[in-house]
Design goal:
β1, α1 and β2 form a beta-alpha-beta unit. The relative contact order is 0.17. Helix content is 30%, strand content 33%. Strands 1, 2, 3, 4, 5, 11, 12, 13, 14 and 15 form a ten-stranded mixed sheet that branches. It has 275 residues and is an alpha/beta fold. The chain has nine helices and 15 strands.
Amino acid sequence: MKIGYLGPEGTFTHQAAMLYIKNFENAEMIPFKHIPDILQAVEKNEIDKGVVPFENSIEGTVTFTIDTLIFDVNVFIESEIILPIRHNIAVKESTLPQVVEKIFSHPQALAQCRKYLNDEFKDVENVQAASTAKAAEIVSNSKENWAAICTCEAAEKFGLKVIGHEIQDESHNKTRFFVVSGHQSRLCTNCGKTSIVFATEDRPGELYKILDIIAIWNINMTKIESRPMKDELGKYVFYIDMESADSEDINSALKMIERKTSFFKRLGTYHTIGR
């Protein structure tokens, strides 16, 4: 089985993927540089599963992931993985903290460490990298006085020393990852969550009608978010997570929702790994 993840080794997505495959034998881990590439590879059956970051407790939804899932591919969420996130800042052995000129990391990591960076490296330029592990690789290969926000595993892999541990703004920092596949898994009772996206007609009360269906079926909605349709200013689709208390209730509610929406997509019914 081929498992794609946001690489290189040492990213948080790599950690999530390792947690997912621990019950599988002979799983082949394949790193990708960009999130959309993983999802597209799943759709094309180039890999069996893909692991992608979806939502962080500090910075919210990863837009690359949600938009690709909604608009660009037809894949299904099989599982979600909840992983505690611990950011560290690392440099080459010869670099002192006071001479750091640039700090590299994934945009989400930089945002999740905003307070620390403002306090400790206020005038240092922040530079976006494709992943936290890629940031560590960039710093390792450079002759400049640069630093990376990365995992301890990435720092060790690329020969960097950690000069600041757990620098994220909030101690309870967690990220939600999705495991996606090209096929809808068999629906199960009490299976955790169901995720959908939909659009309504541009008339008063249309969104309320959809939310009312969810309430009538006594389904707990745990997340709602709007995303621009991209083809016209002011048009949106809505992403919703629901707790799947009963598969029959979920299926009945979704049939009603699909009939009352102009666009509807069921992303999956799935269970949770970790907390």
